Amino acid sequence: MVAASDIHRRDFHRLVGSGIVVLFGLKPTTPSAAVEGAGYPDDLRAYLAIGADGRVTVFSGKVEMGQGVLTSLAQMAAEELGVDLASIDMVLGDTDKCPWDAGTFGSMSTRFFGPTLRAAAAKARGIVQTLAAAKLGVSADKLMIAKGVVSVAAQPDRRVSFAELADGVRITESVSQAAVLRAAANFTVIGRSPKRLDGIEKVTGAAQYAADIRLPGMLYARILRPPLHGAILINADTTAAETLPGAIVVKREDMVAVLHADPEAAASALAQIRADWRSPEATLNQDTIFEHLLANAGAATQIAAKGDLTKGDLATVPAADLFETRFVKGYVAHAPMEPHAAVADVRHDGATVWASTQTPFPTRDGIAAALGFDAKAVRVITPFVGGGFGGKSAGGQAIEAARLSQICGKPVMVERTRAEEFFYDTFDPASVVKISSALDRDGMISRWDYQVFAAGERGAATFYDIPNLRVVSAGGISYAGGKLPTALHPFAVGPWRAPGANMNVFATESQIDIMAAGAAVDPLAFRLKHITDPRMRRVLEAAADTFGWQPAIRPSGKGYGIACSSDAGSVVATIAELKVSKDGRITVLRMVCAQDMGIVVNPEGARMQIEGGLTMGLGYALTEELRFHGGDVLDRNFDSYHLPRFSTVPRIEVVLVKNRELQPQGCGEPAITTVGGAIANAVFDATGARMMRLPMTPKRVLASI
Amino acid sequence: MKRIVQFKLNGGPVDLDTDDQRMLLWVLRTDLGLTGAKYGCGEGICGACAVVVDGEARRSCLTPLSQVGGSDVLTIEGLGKEGQLHPLQQSFIDHGAFQCGYCTPGMLMDAYAMLQNDPRPSHDKIVSQMDRNLCRCGAHQRIVKAIEYIAKAAKD
Questions:
Q1: What is the pLDDT, as a whole number, of residue A5?
Q2: A573-615 pLDDT, tens per residue?
Q3: Which residue in B26, B85, B140 is closest to A264 by CB distance?
Q4: Do A273 and A365 share a structural domain?
């Protein structure tokens, strides 16, 4: 329910003038404990307002970071409300104007915020209908709504517009029960692909990101950074920097910074600071990390269990039917094209901060704590975010900017350099998966003993029908508790697009393929033999059909690989075709991906997300692995850390498997989880070699052949 | 060194009295208030800062002001004319050739320069020319299609 104090504090009508405001106080339908634990409060609420001009404004704490929610949320509101998409204005990620939100992650905007928003819009529609019924002198059930006009169904000339209804009224309604949503069969806005609402801004350079904010008197800050994680500052000699005209040096126990009206001058001044650091001894690197993880991951928690793993003596299983494997994967960077940035304007009684963040509300709270302000005195505004992928759930740049602004009494920008962006990234953790599985005499999987270390549990529990199984996870990031296993890693780790699932699906789908080859069965047929879920069967068959899959016992020499995954409520299957050259280089030629995500709000937007996920997946599969020496991050720019690029991206075909029976599910993450497995399995089909480590670099491919 | 630097920017004259070793990217983004060109890597690797100087795509993060004196500089803000989108911009919208949009100005300026010099590039040429621009969202095949659409229009 909405707290009355919240309503007063927000003073909706001051914000929107006269009109109709709908608050929504219904707890979202959260199917998993993980989502509850992610911080969704009891009073999550959307609100939208119909102004006296008939325009509809939707307020949401979600942010637009490329995934297209600006457009898809607007579509959902327009659909339920009965207005044109063009009459909707979106306000996202502004903590003064928008309802509280934990953050934009986990492919949850459409799944969980969507129904809430739709219910609020449906409520607004009901209010409009009631007002129109009084005005037109007919009962509400005789009315129809289309394009922002209410008319009498039998006499279309008797009509009244939203603007006429909203003008001069001040109605605040809250909804505390599920509204009746429009049936999928009646959709006119959901299920279509209007052009993105952010299109014109983004192709003209008008779209503003945090580092594009300009305030009078603003200073650019550059902060002294340690050479490696764990280094302690002994002494910083700032005398030379202080003599540079216009430079302001800030020295605090935990922060040394230079500020200047010219960003390059700030950088030059920073370079003049002589700093002595005490650095810890380095032990770990990208090759020794895996033994460290196994030794230090700690106690495992059980994710799933079924049947009896001790049933039947393992010693009696023929060696050919027993499969014991170990898969590993290194640290992967988020590397959004926009580095973390923030502009802070801190006054004595309050602060306004523009930040590139996926978590405006937690960011606001962090800033307030750092400044000694009440959270209500801090406003975080989120402009367009230039890519997040989980990496902008964290980031201290907004707090740094706020502290420096408070110290200097001027607006301050902190924009990370690319080197800082790598150094302070919250990497996708290096991880290990161990699997022991067996086939019975009929070639069916009889046991599945799965242990994951450091990746976390997402995607670990298998959807294959296996009578005896156990799945355990140790040392993983617990999103439910918000705790990071920091001691396990030499630097920060955190959520990375479908956190944990990329590793778990790679390991699972590789193992399934290994067993299919062991059973001498085509890998698609082998999967279908062990899957009863009709949705998963449909996406596998749809991908195979579009690809032109030819059943064969692998390796066939063709270079085809398949993998499937269940993630964020969606099911997805991907088939890759590739060739492996003599020098071990993998060239992916084609990827076909079929996904069932329930009702698709914006099919073109969904395709973009899936294509984007598959493309990004090529990185962790083929080239991306952070090199490090203890706390020293060795890759600090794109010259040595290689992202997927035009010349490495294959032809990608996306099949959206229709399922109008199911409400919209997650789309931003599921597809990426299949890439490692599909490619590894295709390498096996091409060469007969099993890739047990990601990324599959030419050297590792050669070593495996 | 502090000097008077004059050049043409998006068709209009610019006259600056400043250190001519400053990089064009930062001069555009601070002194001139044009924030379309983006900082991405600072080393000319990603292309988010691409602008067109005398018809050639340049990395503005590595282009000192001293190199653009007397030149004709075009940024994303000057690509459309009189409130109309350039056909390439429209094609990016029509093909969904961006997601977060941060690399988009650089992509557009690099593609524009390529098409100025070769209005009908092949698919392979588009891929190899654009290969020096990075996109993390994975809009690559749509960017190629958006450029190909303009190239095909030039062929017809």
A1: 36
A2: 999 999 999 999 999 999 999 999 999 999 999 999 999 999 9
A3: B26
A4: yes
Q: Is the pLDDT of residue A39 over 70?
A: no
Q: Where are the beta strands (DSSP E) in A162-292?
A: 170-175, 219-223, 232-237, 248-252, 255-260, 274-278
Q: Which of B33, B100, B131 sits opposite A65 (nearest CB)?
A: B100
Q: What is the DSSP string of A122-189?
A: HHHHHHHHHHHHHHHTS-GGGEEEETTEEEETTEEEEEEEHHHHHTT-EEEEEE-S---PPPGGG-SS
- Pairs across A and B, CB distance < 8 A: 165
- Reported for A300-303, long-range contacts at CB under 8 A and 24+ positions apart, including other chains, are A300/A451, A300/A472, A300/A473, A300/A474, A301/A457, A301/A472, A301/A473, A301/A474, A302/A470, A302/A471, A302/A472, A303/A457, A303/A460, A303/A461, A303/A471, A303/A472, A303/A473
- Among A157, A173, A204, identify where a domain stops: A204
Nearest-Cα distance to chain A for B114, in Å, is: 15
Lookup result for tokens 């089909």: A685
Distance between CA atoms of A302 and A449, rounded to whole angstroms?
11
Same domain, B69 and B117: no
What sign for the dihedral angle of Cα A626, A631, A636, A640? Answer: negative
Find the helix or strand (DSSP H, E) in which A507 lies.
helix A501-518
CATH code where residue B98 lies: 1.10.150.120
Instruction: Tell me how far apart the alpha carbons of residues A43 and A480 are, in angstroms, rounded to a whole number.
Output: 19
How do residues A53-95 score in pLDDT, each as one tens digit? Answer: 889 999 999 999 999 999 999 999 999 999 999 999 999 999 9
B58 and B31 assigned to the same domain: yes
> Structural domain tally of chain A?
3
Q: A interface mutation test: which of B85, B99, B112, B131 has the most A CBs within 10 A?
A: B99
> In this structure, are residues A691 and A680 in contact, taking their beta carbons and an 8 Å threshold?
yes
Alpha-carbon gap, residue A80 to A99, rounded angstroms: 20
pLDDT at A26 > cutoff 50: no
- Pairwise CA distance, residues A379 & A356, whole Å: 14
- Per the listing, tokens 């740049």 go with A397
pLDDT tens for residues A144-189? 999 999 999 999 999 999 999 988 888 877 765 567 788 899 999 9
What is the total count of domains within chain B?
Answer: 2
Q: Residue B52: phi, psi to the nearest 5?
A: -110, 125
Please enumerate in sequence order all residues whose Cβ is within 8 A of that of A42, keeping only pairs 6 or more positions apart, or say none.
Answer: A27
Provide the CATH number for the domain around residue A506.
3.30.365.10
For the record, the structure tokens of A222 come out as: 């550059």
Instruction: Write down which residue in A362, A383, A415 finishes a domain.
Output: A415
Specify if A420 maps to a domain.
no
Q: Is the pTM of this model over 0.90?
A: yes
**Of B78, B99, B115, which one is at a domain's C-terminal end?**
B78
Greatest Cα-to-Cα distance within chain A, rounded to the nearest angstrom: 83
Q: Are A15 and A97 in contact (CB under 8 A)?
A: yes
CA angle A93, B105, B33 (to 5 degrees): 75
Return the closest-CA partner of residue A530 out of A439, A597, A434.
Answer: A439
Separation in Å, CA A146 to CA A78, A81, A700, B42, B123:
10, 9, 60, 51, 44
Q: What letter would DSSP give residue A555?
A: P
- Cα A458 to Cα A454, A618, B143: the distances in Å are 11, 20, 32
With a CB-CB cutoff of 8 Å, which residues 45-64 of chain B face chain A?
45-46, 48
Q: Provide the H-helix boundaries in chain B.
A: 24-29, 87-94, 104-117, 123-130, 140-155
Cβ atoms of A544 and A653 closer than 8 Å: no
DSSP helix, strand, coil percent of chain A (3-state; round to 5):
35, 25, 40
Range of the domain at B74: 2-78
Is A673 in the same domain as A564?
Answer: yes
The residue in chain A having the minimum alpha-carbon distance to the alpha carbon of residue B108 is A203
